[in-house]
Each structure stands twice: as C-alpha cells, then as structure tokens.
UniProtKB/TrEMBL annotation:
Protein name: ATP-binding protein
Organism: Blautia wexlerae
Any GO MF annotation of the entry: ATP binding
Lineage of origin: Bacteria, Bacillati, Bacillota, Clostridia, Lachnospirales
Keywords carried by this UniProt record: ATP-binding, Nucleotide-binding
UniProt entry tagged with the keyword Iron: no
Length: 135
C-alpha cells in the first residue's frame, strides 16, 4: 500500500489527488474511474478538513492499493478526529429542489453512488473510511 499523510486542511486536497493520479496512471486506470476517485478524494478530505478536528487541526493519512480478483482500487482514509461514520447519514432527497433540500450530505451521497464499495470503522482512536472502485 502506498500512503500519504498530510495536514487535514482543504489546501492539501490537490496534493493528495496528484499522489493518487500518479498511482492510478501507473496502473493504466481508465480516465472515468480516475475522475470518480478524484471527486471522492475531494469530498472526503473536505469533510475531514472542515469537521474532524475543529480549531486544533490534525493529520489525515490516505492509502492506495490496487487489488486483483476483481481488479479494483482501494483508498483508505484515516484520521484521529471526532468519531463520525458518514455512511450512517441519511441520503439527501434529491427529488427536492436545492432550495427545499437540507444543506449537507450531497457530497457523501455522490461518493456512495460512484464507488462500488464503502466501509467505515472506528478503531484504535481512528476513523477509517475505505472506498473501493472496480477498474
């Protein structure tokens, strides 16, 4: 597994995305899949940056692994922020207009819809969110 650890701030999203793209390109990842993973990285890291630590800040580690049978990319996000399982959040009602819909939740909803698997656990004082996408 290849990993990158950065301060959990929005300014580091591009750094993590570039790291991911280099790995995905080396495996010949299709452009559509890479774009979906880039969007997921943006959404998940944004949530961690804005909500996990509060004012004191903290770190986030993002790990990348390519698995075989089936061939898929596995991205693991790990932080020591406030315990939070984004998969428990109710999906937004996308049939409502933007004005009538509650604020929040659309980013994680998009990630859930674009990935093939997602899981969350809180272990050893860490939030661990895993997304998987078939290649």
């Amino acid at each position: 597994m290849k990993e990158i650890t950065v301060d959990a701030v929005a300014a580091n999203i591009d750094k993590v995305t570039e790291f991911a793209d280099d790995i995905l390109d080396s495996y010949g990842c299709p452009v559509k899949v890479r774009m979906q993973i880039d969007i997921a990285i943006d959404e998940i890291l944004s949530n961690i940056a804005y909500y996990a630590y509060g004012e004191q800040g903290g770190k986030v580690t993002v790990g990348f692994q390519i698995q075989d049978n089936p061939k898929m990319v596995c991205v693991t996000f790990s932080d020591k922020g406030i315990p939070y399982n984004p998969l428990e959040k109710e999906d937004p009602d996308i049939s409502l207009t933007a004005e009538k819909r509650e604020i929040g939740g659309l980013g994680i909803y998009m990630v859930k819809k674009s990935m093939d698997e997602m899981s969350y656990c809180y272990s050893d004082g860490k939030n661990i969110l895993v997304i998987k996408k078939n290649l």
